[in-house]
Amino acid sequence: NKTNPGFSVATDKLLFVQSVVVDGKDRVWALDTGRPRVNGSVLLAATPGGPKLVGFDLNGTRIATFTFPTSVVAADSSLNDVRFDLRGDGFAYLTDSSLQRAGIVVLNLKTGQSWRHLDGHPSVMAQSGFITMHNGSECHSTSIDVKRADLHTHH
What we know:
This protein is mainly beta.
């Protein structure tokens, strides 16, 4: 892993892929939260080297793996979507919907450098009192364990 060479074997494995996107150059990108899910609901803290963006050619050959320093993607981050701007060096924009530190992660696809933007800004934070609907029924969060970001939803 050339972006963070000290990271563990977690860099070589996909742990919990949240999003798969094809870019404008027909490359497939998998966004891995690096946070394994236990019993279908509990997200463990991210392992160093676990949160990553992995690129593949359409034939399945891995072309790139980008990991993130903990100053950009913390152990409780929740990366969940990615979009690309392939002009110039090329950039990936990843949403971090962490309850503690929502923001946008920006990744330079040429250099591998990454940084956060809109960290904790109201435009990227959950709205207090917002009620989520699923199939016409309200969904309510009943408990949040900040250390594990353990979110239980009941219908």
